[in-house]
């Protein structure tokens, strides 16, 4: 009987949304395996420095900033306030963490963030080595004519599998977590840039981990994969949204597509 109540405990006490929700895209066990995975697997920190900003849309919603160095999430933080005001906090964080690119949620309130970024630039307060790019969750999937499983012509095309960039990005992030879990727990070997790691010292680690296992997979009327980020009335996973965007840049595609050669599970 006690075992039968474990899923209720997970949902209500630990707020582990993957505990009792079907279709969770990134299981919590995979997320936990990724904490300090670069240390567990002895992977050096190197590569691009990318940040992403998810903008609050009012009410109790929060702004969220995530920054990474290569495969390692170095920092994740959320706060209240308006989207426009968020730029005054996000850009100094990019400077502090040495980011070279920042992607912002360009839909709706993201306009306010971009407007304030323009103001910062006009006042000569913008860092010279930082590039700003929009990230449109509702946009078309990347490489739409490519196959979900590269090299497998029998697998569906990205444009037929995913309804939008958001769905594709969540599942590409899922692939990273899955491979990391297999590497950490089962000793399987993958290319380092196919994996993912979350630094255990980031301020909002617990909340980020919970949010990453909140989104569930669904299909739209056309049979394409979509993402329900807030099942059962849960709050919007702002940190997870920023995290997913951070690992799936939509402009500077300096990434090899072969890292995503993994079947959707």
Order of helices and strands: HHHEEEHEHEHHEHEEH
Instruction: Determine the mean pLDDT.
Output: 86
Q: Would you report the number of β strands?
A: 8
- Report how far the terminal alpha carbons are from each other: 30 Å
Strand order of the largest sheet: 5-4-1-2-3-6
Q: In DSSP terms, counting alpha (H) and pi (I) runs of 4 or more, how many helices?
A: 9
What's the helical proportion of residues?
Answer: 25-40%
Uncertain ranges: 1-20, 252-265
Topology record:
Blueprint: H1 6-12, H2 28-34, H3 37-40, E1 49-54, E2 63-69, E3 72-79, H4 83-96, E4 101-105, H5 110-122, E5 131-135, H6 158-161, H7 165-186, E6 197-198, H8 205-212, E7 216-219, E8 225-228, H9 238-246
Parallel strand pairs: 1-4, 3-6, 4-5
Antiparallel strand pairs: 1-2, 2-3, 7-8
Description:
The protein is α/β, with parallel strands linked by helices. Helices cover 33% and strands 15% of the residues. Helix 2 packs across helix 7, helix 4 (83-96) crosses helix 5 (110-122) and helix 8 packs across helix 9. It has helices at residues 6-12, 28-34, 37-40, 83-96, 110-122, 158-161, 165-186, 205-212, 238-246, and strands spanning 49-54, 63-69, 72-79, 101-105, 131-135, 197-198, 216-219, 225-228. The protein is globular, with a radius of gyration of 18 Å. Residues 1-20 and 252-265 have low confidence and may be disordered. A hairpin with a 2-residue loop joins strand 2 and strand 3.
